[in-house]
Structure formats: structure tokens, C-alpha cells
Amino acid sequence: MKVAIIGNGKMGKIVDRIAAGRGHEIVARIGREGNEAAAALTPERLAGAQAAIEFTSPAAAPANLRRLIEIGVPVVTGTTGWYEHLDEIKKHVRQHDGAMVYGANFSIGMNLFFRLAREAARLFSAYEEYDPFLFEHHHRFKKDAPSGTALVIAEAMRQSYRDRTPAPVSVRAGYVPGAHEIGFDSEADTVTMTHTARSRDGFAAGAVFAAERIEKRRGCFEFSQLLFEGFDESEVK
Ligand SMILES: NC(=O)c1ccc[n+]([C@@H]2O[C@H](COP(=O)([O-])OP(=O)(O)OC[C@H]3O[C@@H](n4cnc5c(N)ncnc54)[C@H](OP(=O)(O)O)[C@@H]3O)[C@@H](O)[C@H]2O)c1
Predict the structure, then answer these.
(1) Over 123-137, what HEC string results?
(2) In the prediction, which pLDDT does 22 show?
(3) Which of the two ends of the chain, N or C, has the fewest CB atoms closer than 10 A to its terminal CB?
(4) Nearest CA to ligand 1 atom 5
């Protein structure tokens, strides 16, 4: 598959390595320079690209996505911190019959964690003596706080906790790739569940997997929709 990579930062470089390792050809690598307001995302620069993988910044992502959708390149975006534009971008996908996958976290383990968090919240919320909490720790370079992942976990918990949903507590220090913990604390005991990313490779592998899935499809998908396709139908009731 021919892939364009938008954003040449930490994630863009890993996507480059992992996509190439899976036999894909990188036909364009577009960094910040010359791409203000997505100016470099032209049909000429992206000629032949069957999918684009975008890891940039919250400020740059909406313009990049709009442009990729307009020129008909299916896009996978892992950038977080721009979701206030999500409804508008989804509309853009529909208007242009485009294809997009977005996700605050492209790791398979974390997507399973989202489901476990929702189920844990459903069980613990029945017992007032347990207070829920949500904690995340990322490296000092991460710009958005709370993380997009923490917001997704909070949403999963909100289904049961409503106005008792815990606000994520964020730490930005050191070099941690990403750690998220949920917990339920009572006078008698504490129950915690933690997801710790060991490296960034899992995120990049998920983004490449999504690009392989989106190439021939239309519509807007949250990553887990692609990941668990067929899973819910076969769930044992
Ligand atoms: N969904 C997931 O699984 C996942 C996993 C990890 C990270 N993320 C998110 O992905 C994003 C990128 O993370 P990162 O660690 O790769 O950050 P990073 O190392 O800061 O890289 C971002 C890159 O985007 C470039 N950039 C900025 N504006 C651009 C534009 N208009 N066009 C093209 N490139 C542009 C930056 O260039 P300059 O260096 O010149 O500013 C930088 O090289 C963040 O939002 C992060 O939270 C998501």
C-alpha cells in the first residue's frame, strides 16, 4: 500500500519504520515546514497515496484533516487535543464521501482497557462507599492535559457515574510513554487497574493497521470500531 505520513515528530518517525516494515511504500513525508494551514497537502504531493497517517499537533490537525478529506485521501489521525472540531470534521467526511479513522489511543491493550473501565465503573458505581479516581502520567513534552486517552476513559466511566465521574488528574514529568490508572477506593480497600505503555510502537502499529482497513472504505470510524468488528456479534451472552 502507498502511504503518506503527515507529521515528522516522534510518532511520524515510528509510523514510518513500522509501515515500511509491513511492506508499505511511503510516498510522501510532510512535516511542519511549508504546511501551515495544510498548504503542502496538494494532490501533486500526495499523488498515489492510498492512505495518510497524521500525527501532528492539536492546532494543525483540523486543517490537515479537512484538506485530506477534500482531496480524497483516506486518513488515519492519532493526533489528540482537537476533538472540539470532531463533529464538524465528521460532517466534512460525509459531504465529501471521504474516509477517516480517529482515536485517542491506537493501542489494542488500551482499547481493551476502555471496555474494562466501563464495566468496572458499572459494577462499582452501585456501591456509594467506593470513590472512583482517574490518574494519568506522560512525559514532559506532551502538550495536552488531560490526555485524550484519559478523556475517553472518563467518558466510559460517565455512563455509570454521571455527575460523580472523576476528573482526570494529570502529571507531566520525565519520559513515561503513557500510564493510565483507574481506581475505586473505600474505607476497607482499594481496587486499581493500570495500563502502562512500554513504548510508542504499539500506537504506530495500530495506526498502520487502521490505514490498511480504511483504504477501500468510506465513512468516519473511531479506532475501536475497526478493531472490534465482528467481536461484539460473536460475544457470548
Ligand atoms: N492516538 C495515539 O495512539 C497517540 C499516540 C501517541 C501520540 N499521540 C498524539 O499524536 C500527536 C503527535 O505526537 P508526537 O509524539 O509525534 O508529537 P511530536 O513529536 O511533537 O510531533 C508532532 C510533529 O508534528 C509536526 N507538525 C506541527 N504542525 C504540523 C503541520 N501543520 N504539518 C505537518 N506537521 C506538523 C511538528 O513539527 P515541529 O517539530 O516543527 O513543531 C512535529 O514534528 C499528539 O497530539 C499526541 O498526543 C497519539
Answers:
(1) HHCCCCCCEEEEEEE
(2) 96
(3) C
(4) 203
Question: For position 237, what pLDDT does the model report?
Answer: 41
Cβ atoms of 41 and 35 closer than 8 Å: yes
Confidence check: pLDDT of 177 > 80: yes
- What's domain 108-196's superfamily in CATH? Dihydrodipicolinate Reductase; domain 2 (3.30.360.10)
Enter the pTM of the model. Answer: 0.85
| C-alpha of residue 7 to centroid of ligand 1, in Å | 6
| Mutational pocket test of ligand 1: of 55, 84, 105, 147, the residue with most ligand atoms within 8 Å of the beta carbon | 55
How far does residue 98's CA lie from ligand 1's centre (Å)? 23
Q: Which atom of ligand 1 is nearest to the CA of 147?
A: 47
Residue ranges covered by each domain of the chain: 2-106+200-227, 108-196
Torsion angles phi and psi, residue 65, rounded to 5: -65, -45
